[in-house]
Structure formats: C-alpha cells, structure tokens
Design goal:
This protein is an alpha/beta fold. It is built from eleven helices and twelve strands. It has a five-stranded mixed beta sheet, sandwiched between helices.
C-alpha cells in the first residue's frame, strides 16, 4: 500500500434494510460525514419493512445520499482511497442497489471497492466509537439479528450463540403492533414502558433453563399476545395503563434474557481468549433499560461497556466505511467482483442457527 500523507478516506454505503446511508470516514476514526435517509414513514402502515418498497426507495435515494456524504466531507470521488459497501446479509433488493452503486462509482473513478458484511459493520463499530481493540465480546442485537460475537480481529469472528427464531427488534416490532403502538416498535415500546409496571405481567424468559448462549424470542411475543387477549376478553379493550404495563413487562423480560445470556457468553469467551471489553451494537442497543443491565454485567466482570452513540447503533454508512478500512488494512482484497449476498454469516465455521426471521435463515 502506498504511504499516505493524510489519513485514508473511505466512502461507506449501506442499504441492507430500511435506511439509505452513506458516509466518509478516515483511517484515524474521524467521521467526516454521515448521511442517513430513513424509511420509517414508508413502512409505518404495514408494521414492518416491505422489501419491495425498501428496494425502490434505495434505488431512488442512493445517489442523493452519496452526493450529500461527499459534499459534507468536502471531498470528491478522486480524493477517496476506498469505497466500502454492504454486500450482505440483508434484503436482496436493497443490497443489490448498494452494490451496483458502489461498483459504478469505483469503475468511474478507479477507486477500489470492498464488499463488507453488514454484521461486521455493527460489531466493529466499538473500535470506531470507543477505541476498543480485539479481542472483545459483542452482543449484536437488532431487527434481524441477535448474536454473541467474539471479535478476534477485524476479519476473525467467533459466534458463541444466537437467536433460534425471532430477533429482539423483530419481537419489539410485533409486540408494538399487538399493543397498538407505532413503528419502529423499539422506541415506541420503550416510551410506553417508561410509565409502566414491569412486574404486573409474568412473562417467560425463554431458554434460560438451557445451557449455552442461544436465545429465543418467539414465545415471549406470543405471551404478550395472550396477555393482551385476556385483557380484551375481560374488559372489552386495553386501557393506557395496560399498554404501559405490558410494554414494561415485555421490555424487562428481553433485558433479563439478554443480560443472563451475556454473562454466559463472557464466561464462554473468557475460557478461551482474553477479553478487552464488552460491547452492544445494533438498533436495539439504543434501548436504555438494556444498556443499564449490560453495564451492570460488564462492571461485575471489571470490564467497560462500549455502547456506541445512538446514531451509530442503527444502520449507517459510517460503520461500513470504518469496517471497510479496518478489513482492507488487515489484508482484505478489494475489486469489482463482489456480489450481493442475502445471507452471509460472520463466522462461517459455526453451524447454521435454526429458524427464520424477516431476513431469512439466521446467519
């Protein structure tokens, strides 16, 4: 690699689900721009992401996002050292839009293009936001994924466990819909739960009686529906207090499961590797109750909790740009031969997890 007189600069492009994003980040970890065009308004009426609508929105907005990111960073395409793009896993229409855009930009400018695993973007974000260095443990918790990942290097990952069915974000969305709350469900449930009593409803803590770090949230979502139906049958509907208490009880159950399983994942990783820190990443990492519970777990193990700022928890281009730079400098090869991948496990040596979520078979 040619010696640089200034830090490397990378354009990151993200379009795997329902955010169209682009950012420019330096090899020194400076975020020069970070543009995100959300789609919540397009999907709100459906209570979840509609793949066809998302793909069309990405195709319409990617050029605008890239232009805004370059202008915000005060640089041209020719000033870049690398273009990094999410090439999987995700909704295939959105992933294709991003990959095609990145390859076209690379072909026109001569800048190398590197395909980045969307999950790697999330689990490497603590290196960008908090200066964390491997080996560290990440709880990746989002709308489509929930996994415990040991980050051993920018390109070496070990999955210690994951969800066998719904991801927590998916369960938040579905529970919010059951309670008549808006989309996305995570912030809506958290807001409703703030005035609720978390002990009113006894909800299950799935798989806590089973060894290991795997998780399940489908039964918890079903328990919320049954509790709601009992209330409706008994009193003819839901009162505001009922919604708040159910939301709080659900949120507490999710936090209990994730905190307990995090304890197990720390013990599992600690038996094989040193641990420099505990991190939480992904959209559900924005939940304040979950952060507080995980911070207590980290402190009990004399570790710091890395919880990226909210704008880096949800899907964004900065995490893809940073992951691309970290992996490129670690020896990953860039080129025009990358292809969109709807499924792409971080740890390709781990056995596939069972079950289906809104992004297909779990990685």
């Amino acid at each position: 690699m040619i010696a640089q007189t200034q830090p490397l600069r990378c354009l990151g492009i993200e379009s795997s689900c329902d955010e169209t994003a682009a950012a420019v980040v330096t090899g020194g970890g400076e975020i020069l721009s970070n543009v995100v065009f959300g789609q919540a308004g397009l999907h709100d009426a459906y209570g979840g992401v509609v793949p066809e609508i998302a793909a069309r929105a990405h195709a319409e907005r990617l050029d605008h996002a890239v232009r805004a990111a370059l202008e915000g960073a005060a640089c041209a395409l020719s000033d870049l050292d690398l273009i990094a793009v999410t090439s999987g896993p995700g909704l295939i229409g959105g992933v294709m839009s991003g990959v095609i855009t990145a390859k076209a930009l690379g072909a026109a400018s001569g800048v190398p293009v590197l395909g980045v695993n969307h999950l790697a973007g999330h689990v490497l974000t603590p290196m960008l936001s908090d200066g964390l260095r491997p080996p560290y443990l990440v709880l990746l918790v989002s709308g489509g994924h929930c996994q415990f990942i040991a980050v051993l290097s920018p390109r070496r990952f070990q999955r210690l466990g994951g969800t066998l069915d719904d991801a927590p974000g998916e369960a938040f969305d579905k529970s919010a819909r059951l309670l008549g709350l808006g989309y996305p469900g995570g912030p809506e449930v958290e807001k409703a739960a703030a005035s609720g009593e978390a002990t009113r409803f006894v909800l299950p803590r799935p798989l806590l009686d089973r060894e290991g770090c795997d998780l399940s949230f489908s039964g918890l979502k079903t328990a919320v529906r049954r509790a709601r139906d009992r209330l409706v049958a008994a009193q003819g509907g839901l009162y505001q207090r009922d919604v708040a208490d159910l939301a709080a009880s659900f949120q507490e159950a999710v936090a209990d499961v994730l905190a307990t399983k995090t304890e197990r994942a720390l013990a599992d990783m600690g038996a094989r590797h040193p641990i420099t820190g505990l991190a939480v990443a992904g959209g559900v990492a924005a939940n304040g109750v979950l952060r507080a519970r995980l911070r207590a777990v980290a402190e009990a193990h004399d570790l710091a909790l890395s919880a990226p700022p909210l704008e880096l928890c949800t899907d964004n281009g900065a995490m893809i740009a940073w992951a691309g730079l970290a992996q490129w400098q670690d020896g990953a090869e860039a080129g025009q031969d990358l292809s969109p991948r709807p499924r792409w496990p971080l740890d390709d040596r781990a056995a596939p997890l069972l079950g289906f979520g809104k992004r297909g078979v779990k990685a």
